[in-house]
Write a structure and sequence with these properties.
Layout: H1 2-15, H2 22-33, H3 39-43, H4 54-89, H5 107-120, E1 125-126, E2 132-134, H6 135-138, E3 158-159, E4 172-174, H7 179-188, E5 193-202, E6 214-224, H8 229-244, E7 250-257, E8 260-269, E9 286-295, H9 297-302, E10 311-318, H10 319-327, H11 340-343
Parallel strand pairs: 1-5
Antiparallel strand pairs: 2-4, 3-4, 5-6, 6-10, 7-8, 8-9, 9-10
Helix pairs in contact: 1-4, 2-4, 5-10
Length: 350
């Protein structure tokens, strides 16, 4: 019938209708989807359609509407994309870009990277462990008895036990040193062991210009056959000179740590040039930078290493202390306040 032919031709016309401009798209919408679109007169002819073909006619009209709506959506999208492409083509890609503010490495990260790099060059590898630690790896394996002051809740942040992932009645805490990484390494690796363990640690201390409840450490451990105190001294002298200059002098003073025997504090000669207020070396010229010593045989036994065959040394230092010395920072709290005025000062430090 003639009306069916006109509908079929109209659908073909809709499918091929061009609309290169927004004005043409709007004209398409008015012609085929507007309140007086070309489909409405055809729909009025449904009364002339034989009853048995009315359903077929209605389906064809609906198809024409759907095709018109889909074609309109496609043309609208294509036109918008064309406008965006035109806008993009107007950009001068050779023009200087707006300057973007760049961040900088944190002084703690800078210092940690420097320390790690020094020890990596002489064969040490980096080891890591959890910051939430159990009592065994943090204290007991390190030969720290239950009555040691470091176990006091006034010094240590204990975490409530009984969580699903933890064994029942296991005392959990925020590690007070990265010595726990040494214990885990000695339990899982056979000597020779040569590691450094950098990381964040926590102690329940009063926050001041010189101390904080959270800080960072680098601890080192070397276990092998016939390791001596002289080996330790040579290693630490090399570190001090690589860190502070080839003319750096060190001294070792007797000290006490539960996990080393004999133990020592290592000082470097800082001089008296900055001793106007005696804040750095208290007028002595010597500045303590780390603790060290030979690993106690009981620690080796606790971790499954034969102390008759193997020996070793360990050392540990606070990264904040090293950063304060390197960059002349007078207040440790500055490192945790995220003040961009402070952090921008390190933008040029590599």
């Amino acid at each position: 019938m003639e009306v069916f032919d006109r509908l079929t031709q109209l659908i073909a016309e809709i499918e091929s209708a061009p609309a290169p401009t927004p004005e043409a798209v709007e004209a398409f919408r008015i012609r085929y989807l507007g309140s007086k679109n070309v489909l409405k007169p055809l729909m009025g002819e449904i009364r002339t359609i034989p009853h048995e073909r009315k359903r077929e006619f209605g389906q064809l009209v609906n198809r024409a509407k759907e095709v018109a709506q889909q074609r309109y959506d496609d043309l609208l999208t294509a036109t918008k994309n064309g406008e965006q492409s035109q806008e993009a083509s107007d950009l001068d890609l050779t023009a200087p870009a707006e300057p973007l503010p760049l961040g900088s490495r944190h002084p703690i990260a800078l210092t940690m990277r420097r320390i790690v790099s020094i020890f990596e060059r002489i064969g040490f590898t980096v080891a890591e462990g959890p910051e939430i630690e159990d009592d065994w790896h943090n204290f007991s394996a390190m030969n720290t008895p239950e009555d040691h002051p470091a176990r006091d809740m006034q010094d240590t942040f204990y975490v409530s036990a009984g969580m699903p992932a933890w064994p029942d009645n296991t005392a959990m805490l925020l590690r007070t040193h990265t010595s726990s990484v040494q214990a885990r390494t000695m339990e899982t690796q056979k000597p020779p062991i040569r590691i450094i363990a950098p990381g964040r640690v926590y102690r329940n201390e009063t926050i001041s210009a010189r101390s904080h409840a959270q800080f960072h450490q680098v601890e080192g451990l070397y276990i092998a056959e016939r390791v001596s105190f002289a080996d330790m001294k040579a290693t630490l002298l090399h570190f001090a000179r690589a860190m502070y200059g080839l003319e750096t002098k060190i001294r070792l003073r007797p000290s006490y740590f539960p996990f080393t025997e004999p133990s020592a504090e290592m000082d470097i000669w800082w001089g008296l040039q900055t001793e106007h207020d005696h804040r750095i070396t208290k007028g002595t010229g010597w500045l303590e930078i780390m603790g060290c010593g030979m690993v106690d045989p009981q620690v080796l036994t606790n971790c499954g290493i034969d102390p008759e065959r193997y020996s070793g040394y360990a050392f540990g230092m606070g990264i904040e202390r090293q950063a304060m010395l390197l960059y002349n920072i007078q207040d440790i709290r500055l490192m945790f306040e995220n003040d961009v005025r402070f952090l921008r000062q390190f933008a040029s430090v590599l």
